[in-house]
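Write out the 3D structure for:
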Amino acid sequence: MEKAGIPAPEPRVERFEKLGFGMFIHWGLYSQLGQGEWIQRIGNIPGPEYAKLKETFTASEFKPKEIARAAKRAGMNYITITTRHHDGFSLYDTRGLSEYDALHTPAKRDLIAEFVDACREEGLLPMFYHTTLDWYQESYVNDFTAYLDYLYRSVEILCTRYGPIGGFWFDGNWDKPEEDWKLDELYGMIRRLQPEAMIVNNTGLEHRGEVGHPEIDSVTYEQGRPKPMDRRGMSKYVTAEMCETINDHWGIGKADFMYKSVPALIESLCACRKVGANYLLNVGPTAEGQILPVQTAMLEMVGDWLRIFGQPIYEGKPSDIEGEGDNFALETSDGKLYLFIYHLKISGHANVTVNGGGAGEKTFTGLQRKVESVRWLDNGEELSFTQDGETGTLRFHATGFPYGVNYVVRVAEATTA
């Protein structure tokens, strides 16, 4: 499936792509207000008033082992946490750089150290979100050179005090696009101290999918749907990741009831993997650090789906074989083809099923290899098919879901010669 003219991914990038699905955590002082992570700026809260939230930050319910287990249960393979968000407050021990950190709150804990340990216990890759803009540090406005030194030393602490980490997810350069952020120095330090770490820098909503710097390992897509990467002519292989909120806020919104549905989350995951992108799904813990039960329950259901269909999600690569409508194909290195089918319905009596139909012939084009069998991945049911070798067309009969079953997206495995 390797294409001519496209560079091979470096090992860290290849490993990252196979992780497929991760948890994003937005948690900080703003969580105490329960109005999202941007409430200081959007709510016009004066800096000194906002900073008083430090005095009531307890982290009393922050149990990273439980969070890591929830992520593992959901089929996630890595967690990206806000070590410092735009408000400038750090969840880690800044070791004298600033007193605006978790060690100088009632929590009196290095919350990132605990997080990293919990991830490793569950076999998850810990990754660090870190803001590059800062609403707390006066130097960000008054002395940008001094601020960049502060940012550099902050990241250096994260590079040296927590063992090998999965990567850095930076966010904020878009706030000062005209400035020289001295990224060669920052990224060079990461390459030296954490050579296996992914480097990601969020390009924001206006520049989704842009690379931005030669050291970037993954482009970002914030909300929406990622696009296929055109890597022709690239100097290195760059992957992609799409991050999405589970409701309408990154940090907890106590009055935000606009939760996405479980089917929408499954479809987002599939849409990401269709183009080879990872899916980074956000949760916003409470002021004390607990993930809300509704969010945990939704993640569990996605995990149930992945226990059935996880193999192609994690191991599959985008394919040139095309389906009709939303249907698409992924291929694995062992030559298997996985056909993702949307909009099937439950088979059964009209009085006890909803909107029957959706089953029937499904067509895929661009397939030149001989197909030997097609079966549903969930129950092994063999499906009848025909193949036209001259046109590269595969047609198979997709049966509906058995009564009592609806996987939202169902996957058929096609074995090819």
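The first strand starts at residue 21 and ends at 25.
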